[in-house]
Amino acid sequence: MEKQGNLKLLTKIADFYRDILPVLKKFPKDQRYTLAQRIEERVLSCAEMVYFIAYQKRNRAERLEELRVRLHFLGLLVRLSNEQKFLSDKQYEVFSLRLIEMGRITSKWIQTEFSRKSENAKTSV
């Protein structure tokens, strides 16, 4: 699950970034350097975190939890964009569903990591 999960998650994040970037460029000018920029930075930081999690095994479960929190926060930023009418309801729905899917992939990865830790604890006893 680990390699498959992180590759799938990276693909989802990259696709999300590719699709939301043109939308962010249409935000009002005063919001392009605040809300839109924060969304863009958060998406990229999530992708960066996946790389760190994939390559550094130490504290992996904690980092995955942090990634899940970042994805939830990204969902909040998308919701705020919709409430301010910078995103249409349809765009909000599409982006929200994609964030939910990324959260599910992250949760499965967390479960895999905890089950691996549990198995290692049993074999070392």
Characterization of this structure:
The radius of gyration is 16 Å and the shape is elongated. With 125 residues, it is mostly helical. α1 packs antiparallel against α3. The protein has 5 helices and no strands. The mean pLDDT is 90.
Secondary structure topology:
Layout: H1 2-24, H2 29-32, H3 35-55, H4 60-83, H5 89-124
Helix pairs in contact: 1-3, 1-5, 3-4, 4-5
Overall pLDDT score: 90
Low-confidence segments, given as residue ranges, are none
Tally of extended strands?
Answer: 0
Radius of gyration: 16 Å
The number of distinct helices, counting runs of at least 4 residues, comes to: 5
Structural class: mainly alpha
Strand percentage lies at under 5%
Query: Overall 3D geometry?
Result: elongated
Helix share, percent: over 70%
Helices and strands, in order, run as HHHHH
Largest sheet, in brief, is: none
Give the distance, in angstroms, between the N- and C-terminal Cα atoms. 25 Å
Short description:
With 125 residues, this protein is mainly α. The protein has five helices and no strands.
List keywords for this structure.
5 helices; 125 residues; elongated; mainly alpha; 0% strand; 86% helix
